[in-house]
Amino acid sequence: xxxxxxxxxxxxxxxxxxxxxxxxxxxxxxxxxxxxxxxxxxxxxxxxxxxxxxxxxxxxxxxxxxxxxxxxxxxxxxxxxxxxxxxxxxxxxxxxxxxxxxxxxxxxxxxxxxxxxxxxxxxxxxxxxxxxxxxxxxxxxxxxxxxxxxxxxxxxxxxxxxxxxxxxxxxxxxxxxxxxxxxxxxxxxxxxxxxxxxxxxxxxxxxxxxxxxxxxxxxxxxxxxxxxxxxxxxxxxxxxxxxxxxxxxxxxxxxxxxxxxxxxxxxxxxxxxxxxxxxxxxxxxxxxxxxxxxxxxxxxxxxxxxxxxxxxxxxxxxxxxxxxxxxxxxxxxxxxxxxxxxxxxxxxxxxxxxxxxxxxxxxxxxxxxxxxxxxxxxxxxxxxxxxxxxxxxxxxxxxxxxxxxxxxxxxxxxxxxxxxxxxxxxxxxxxxxxxxxxxxxxxxxxxxxxxxxxxxxxxxxxxxxxxxxxxxxxxxxxxxxxxxxxxxxxxxxxxxxxxxxxxxxxxxxxxxxxxxxxxxxxxxxxxxxxxxxxxxxxxxxxxxxxxxxxxxxxxxxxxxxxxxxxxxxxxxxxxxxxxxxxxxxxxxxxxxxxxxxxxxxxxxxxxxxxxxxxxxxxxxxxxxxxxxxxxxxxxxxxxxxxxxxxxxxxxxxxxxxxxxxxxxxxxxxxxxxxxxxxxxxxxxxxxxxxxxxxxxxxxxxxxxxxxxxxxxxxxxxxxxxxxxxxxxxxxxxxxxxxxxxxxxxxxxxxxxxx
Length: 754
Prior knowledge:
The chain is α/β, with parallel strands linked by helices. The chain is built from 20 helices and 27 strands.
């Protein structure tokens, strides 16, 4: 029996003994009763002080239960890619346990790049088993904030730029995670799309963009995934912090979507007792801290939802019913997780978990360019040189709260040597320094020049060069608390790649990142692989794709613009990203959009690209992406036949099916992701040229054909009319566009809605 479960049974037994005179098991302890009955019974037995205590932290990652009644506390943990190492009870230092090493799973951007909901289910199941083993009740993830700008330091934790793709991937993750008795805490609700000024940036966004782009994945997580908890975001929306934002939490999350779970603050996300009491917040965690490094001089009883809340209730300044509502939701979460005696036992760092991480990583890597140099056959003897710090760097380190303490980390260099022989040579090429969240080592130019010169000299004599660079999880790269400073690769990598290409034409660029980046050297290199933070099995997945043991099948979950200004968030200048500081910023926004901006000195920002995010922007502005959304090559080729419709008309209560044959026309087995986009040919409001509505990943042997069928309903044709505050579909003509990416449309069909 695991330790926490032993104490749970002991606490319950004590409660039973104290109530034995009643000769009945109290309803709240009877697991055979419906949870809501148990919740109401427990609530009726609690004091006001006990109810308030449920609403705030008692440690860095714990909130109280009710020990008098045998109701256990909640234990939470970062993060979505693996269970974080144990943190000290009352500060951000690591506890230095010897039994908290885990499996690092691929980052969620990599999961999205698989375009495979089956991989999301495998991911949730396996990370849930590790969280269960580590006695965690709430796993702080997954994240579904939309990829708005490639400078966002936290994009690697999210699932790309398209709300439909993110929604399809998040649901099975949540469902399988929660089967372990571990709650998903879907984050960060909402519009947390940058790290710069994240604690106080005041976002202005249209209702159309909110409902069509930024909310759908959260809605799917709540209504289809049945997530048990949600984490509020740091930023403000409409002048209120998200962690106690009445419209987001009361109106949308609970009233419109029917959410019955718990809203948890991000650490340091609460700012006001009255707003926290009235505006939908349930559990306040980590106040008076930046949520990453800073410590608080205040105790847990000083939190906004602690003694100040209790005092306001006693004075009659806020209704006592507010704490009843919060306690009711928190008890429901406790009964679903820490008090659930039927949940399975977990496991950690098992061969099965490593295999799951490898399978996800294999399907995530995206082949962006190939002139035939890939795959690189291990049977042919070659003098191979690997260049780049990311070939050896432990990329589980840094990045903020997603940092992981791994049991094993198989690097690309080790895996390449295991594949091609120990004679594979290595040159560092560049250096980045220690992983730090909000600071960085400055590497002298002389050192960078020396490392570059050494790598270029070694490349002259190699038969093939594999470059493994990109970004890492240092501050100002892919890292919580900071955004990237530039779109180009840092540490003079662009110069390094160009010099390598100049001396060796057989250069394979296999970069690792959680973000898009500029490629000024693209025309000079024969092959480009986009990898991601793939965790424990990073090296084996990369080596198997390079060697051809695995045929790459990932596709991009976000667009790669040619230059930063081609991205919609950056088109309008700083008022759109990163925002403008001071009251004058509000005036600038008001002048530009007629917005009603309240006074104040918080940085202010307007999402001026509106609904045209990612590929929607590239389409409507006719700005070609360097690599478009949904793009990815294979070591085989696929032919799309003529698509057919079950009907050329769809009614309000009907549906149509679309079928397309797809054939593997190459010589090796491969996986193809068939994508269906819908275009509304005429609308009363501006709409994107096309929007992703369905996709399916299929496996085909050489010469094999499969028919892929999609069903479309009127729901898929709707847009949000913010003047009516409702989703509508207008009669007219639509196009179904089926292809291999958002720009590679292979077949188009027209139908009408009447």
